[in-house]
Amino acid sequence: MLDYDIRLETPLVTPGGEDLWFHPRVAAIPAGRAGAPPAVVMTLSKHLKVSDHYSGLYVMRSDDLGRTWAGPEAVPELAWVTEGDVHIAVADVTPGYHAPTGKVLAIGAQVRYSRTGAQLEDVPRAHQTGYAVYDPETRRWTRWKRLEMPPGAKFNLARNACAQWLVQHDGTLLLPMYYGTSATVPASVTVAQCAFDGTELRYLRHGTELVLNEVRGLVEPSLARFDGRYYLTIRNDIRGYVTAGEDGLNFAPIKPWTFDDGGELGSYNTQQHWLAHSEGLFLVYTRRGANNDHIVRHRAPLFMAEVAPDRLCVLRGSERALIPARLGELGNFGAAPITESESWVTVSEGVWDSNYKYHPEAESRTFVARVLWSKRRRL
Predict the structure, then answer these.
(1) Cβ neighbours of residue 141 under 8 Å, at least 6 residues apart?
(2) Is residue 275 within 8 Å of residue 343, measured between CB atoms?
(3) CB under 8 Å to 120, separation ≥6 — which residues?
(4) Quick check: is 253 in a domain?
(5) How many CA atoms lie within 13 A of 291 on its CB side?
(6) In the prediction, which pLDDT does 361 show?
(7) Is there a domain that residue 345 lies in?
(8) Would 135 be classed as within a structural domain?
(9) Which residues contact 364 (CB under 8 A, 6 or more apart)?
(10) Spatial separation of the C-alpha atoms in residues 75 and 203, rounded to whole Å
(11) Which domain holds residue 194?
(12) Which of 145, 155, 296, 354 has its CA 20 to 30 A from that of 177?
């Protein structure tokens, strides 16, 4: 079993929970000289204290592997766009480095808000995938653009949201997304293959259509590649699901996440994400049954465990708590490789429930759990 150490850091603390930072996720940009650490860009949004109401995107940056950070900085190009009484944001963002072009892509869900923070489906294709491009040379971001999906009602809603996506050897992207005819019907999941030329992201095709007509269906999938195969983990209101395939587009039928002893994993109505090392595949998740009934949707602690790829289950004996339960939820997190020797899991604590607001330790904290591998990851 691949071993690792955990180093927990807190780059951002807001006393009293005045600013609630959600969805912190990072991308590592290789240094231009040998032996230098990568630059790390973190994207994050303010939660505006109405359910699923988020600000424009902010950015933090570290050039010394997290010892010091600049930001969070409001980037004008990544702010809301206003159309009359409607605010348009891109939320649930995951950034990633695209080596063939040397650019960073920030990809998330385009959201239309009323002035009171309600999500709107007031125009055709209101719920789509938005993206912006960062040029490390100029340190400038583009404005938000929209990924155009094929015509027809099937993709009236089509979001890559809170999703780990992959860059293929040919430079194309594999974007897991959830989609449907509207936001009021159960969503399905697929993986779209897209071309990127450094400026525009363009849909090419999509793979297996995974369907579950249960509650809200399937949402927020994340994709990983390990030992020549592709693995997809998927959120559902009742339980998490997993599947695998050979090419990143075509997948077997989904199965519920379980431990290796057959017991249900207990992760529900929140994301799971991957950390893939050349020596092992790991899942990061929250679950029931951890003395955490006081936490919204049992969204803390944040756990990590090794996956048995052939059985598509979690090895119970390998489970470790990356970030402990404290006051609030840890459900809106990210996971990403940083160097050959370490990966990071990033999350902000959601201390916004009225039960916690006046607690003496009710800071809003953003955590970086540095996973320090015992063996270097083969690239």
Answers:
(1) 59, 75, 77, 78, 106, 132, 133, 134
(2) yes
(3) 86, 112, 113, 114, 126
(4) yes
(5) 4
(6) 60
(7) no
(8) yes
(9) 13, 14, 16, 17, 18, 19, 20, 21, 348, 349, 351
(10) 27
(11) 4-271
(12) 296
Say how many CA atoms lie within 13 Å of 257 toward its Cβ. Answer: 32
Domain count across the chain: 1
pLDDT at 364: 79
Per-10-residue mean pLDDT for the chain, 379 residues long?
94 80 96 87 92 93 98 97 94 98 98 94 95 98 98 97 98 98 97 98 98 97 98 98 98 98 98 98 97 91 98 98 89 96 94 56 84 93
Cis amide bond preceding 100, omega within 30: no
The answer to whether 229 touches 170, Cβ cutoff 8 Å, is no
Model-wide pTM > 0.90:
yes
- Main-chain phi, psi angles of 15, to 5 degrees: -60, 140
**Whole-number pLDDT of residue 88:** 95
N residues, the chain: 379
11 secondary structure, DSSP code: E
Distance, in Å, from the CA atom of 152 to the CA atom of 106, rounded to the nearest integer, reads 26
Strand-strand pairing, 128-135 and 334-337: unpaired
Looking only at the bridges linking them, the beta strands covering 273-277 and 280-285 are antiparallel
Give the separation between CA 346 and CA 338, rounded to whole angstroms: 12
Q: What is the pLDDT of residue 352?
A: 62
Q: Write out 148-189 in H/E/C secondary structure.
A: CCCCCHHHCEEECCCCCCEECCCCCEEEEEEEECCCCCCEEE
Burial of 25 (0-12, 13-18, 19+ CB in 10 A): buried
Task: Write down the pLDDT at residue 356.
Answer: 54
Residue 132 is predicted with a pLDDT of 98
Q: Six-digit token pair at 290?
A: 């951890």
Q: Indicate the residue type of 44.
A: L
296 assigned to some structural domain? no
Q: Is the Cβ–Cβ distance between 192 and 179 less than 8 Å?
A: no
Helix (H, G, I), strand (E, B) or coil at 4: strand
- Provide the pLDDT for residue 357: 52
Amino acid 147: pLDDT? 98
First-to-final CA distance of the chain: 19
Q: What is the CATH number of the domain that holds 258?
A: 2.120.10.10
